[in-house]
Amino acid sequence: FAGAPLLRTEFALDDGHGGIGSAVLHATAHGVFQAYLNGALVGDDVLSPGWSSYEWRLRYRTYDVAELLITDPSSPVVLGFAVGNGWFRGRLGWSGGRGFYGDELGVLAQLEITYADGHVQRIVTDTAWTAGPSEVTANDLYDGQDVDARLGSDAWLRPGFGGDGWVGVHPGERDLATLAPYVSPPVRRVDERAPERIWTSPSGKTLVDFGQNLVGWVRFSVQGPAGSVITLRHAEVLEHEELGTRPLRSARATDRFTLSGGDDVFEPTFTFHGFRYLEVDGWPGELAADDLTAVVISTDVDRIGTFECSDELLNRLHSNVVWGARGNFVDVPTDCPQRDERLGWTGDLAAFAPTAVYLFDAQGFLRDWLLDLDVEQQHADGMVPFVVPDVLKYIDHPPEFPTPDSTAVWSDAAVWVTWAVYQAYGDVSVLADVFPAMAAHVRRVEGLRAPTGLWDTSFQFGDWLDPTAPPEEPFLAKADNGVVATACLFRSASLVAEAARLLGRDADAAHFADVAEQTRAAFVEHYLHEDGTIHSDAPTVYALAVVFGLLDETSTARAGDRLAALVAEGGYHIQTGFAGTPFVTDALTLTGHLDDAYQLLLQTECPSWLYPVTMDATTIWERWDSMLPDGTINSGEMTSFNHYALGAVADWMHRTIGGIAPAEPGYRTVRVAPRPGGGIGWAKASLQTPYGQVAVSWTDGPDGLELDVEVPDGVTALIDLPDQPVRELTAGSHRLEPATAR
Ligand code: BGC
To answer: Rounded CA gap, 659 and 669, in Å?
Structure first.
């Protein structure tokens, strides 16, 4: 079937065993599925079973379906599935290829009904099932979905359905040992937005603005002539007052709905789009705001961390970071959710993980992904691939595409993401689970070092998207790749040593501490010059050296001073890419240059964090200048308007403006260390820790700092204020008046 096939079976409930005690449905698919039982949709998840490293790990959902079986016991029951192409058979990557995991869709399901007397009835997918066409005539995550309501009918979900055009099924290939439960919450509908504006473009198109760059689809009800077609095209931005689709590259992001002539409800659930704007063609009559609803989908991670302050631009920046995480957490933590890419780029998450784990309870989500990272790496000789799940290994790349090997920041995700999860939630089992992957990563990089001990030998993305790199050459950074990579190796080896120590793996701890020390020594010998500058003399190299702790006290202070001088020379415009950006404000703060950190953060001219905010951005952009000041789109191939990596500065905002940081993993001890500055008059932050809510709020008035702190039971807060000894507070609500707070 060209579109999304339907699969069904019909059965009678077993007789003579009393009522139904419990009923669960386990289900998974090659493709993405929606299950129906007794005429009703099962579950509120969408796009299940998501995208995992299918070769070795296919997750299944388990649903409690007892309520759906409260029925006339003598009537047959129908179990059915609709199956979309999803990640399994749909397009993936920019090559135009599809079907990387297989060209046949399939469902694997088991319904277990337990009766009052303990009898269990099992309905399983087998060759007695039949398959037929649906009203979904085309579907692809990138390209969109076509629905022909004239073909729609729920007769297939009712007993006794004969079905024209329905055929038999045959068993598919799947090693049952690869089935795994979800560790992550599934993807669900998490929000809705109404249009903010509907208007006609200069070329006569009907355009809709939802006011927020979001990820999901548009749902609507409509009545119009049978056979007429409504077309929805999605885009993140406008350009020259029309829909700006060039950044989507080859992703068509177009849904088409053919009307039945009756009352139709459309909701395309086998695709998703990253969009703020919509172009609507073929709407019968005048389109009104309440005709359309944008449905936001995301992995259903709970929001746990908040931040707010007196600066409205910073609040918008923060909101953009939150939306960036929401939109790129659609089962896999992706680089972007809109163009022909949407891949689990490891470096983007390595940069963003510390921010993500504060904003959301992302533990299950990230641990699920780390299982894929681990299994991919096991099949790649210790190499953490560029993307997880690694679909790039199936794509023939042009010769200029780098031969994949371990790459600083990107492959460091094995260590850095795991560490961020451990720090935020305090569960040491994540270190135990991922330790083999963390260790294998560092061991592989040990073998990539040059005889000097530096990691300057292999391909690097480096300080990717340094703002001075030309649009078509995003890898041309000011920071030397060897400096960046060697610094990253030092950080990873140090963290793996620490993880080994926590896990009682003494030999490993000694080994990785040794690697870290060798790497530090090589860094200092070859990259640190007599005058205190670091090879390539770019802000990123100082940021990494300071924050990762590569230098002694004197050299750290000099590196901080040099960084501050470079930042000032650059007019407080951002000068860092993916590698340096998450660390530059911390490096300034740690070395006594807090004011410079604030000036850098509060800059509104391009390039800066706030420039996009002044350009009406509602998400974090891939490039500092994805949209140019004149409103045209950057000419580069990569101009996503929803890329979370550069939003990693929110982690600094949470700790340094908000004042909440873990002093112990999981916030058993919380460090409350706000550092007011930048003219910010007040700030508030709160976090739902594993022990309860921590909340900090401060006002910087004429008399000094007034601080309110809420500490949950079992938690100790270390109050660390400028020029004051650190104080301990235990559970309760505390107010520190200006006299004591300053
Ligand atoms: C992605 C990035 C990714 C990068 C790697 C891009 O195409 O969108 O975010 O990390 O490639 O170089």
So the answer is: 13
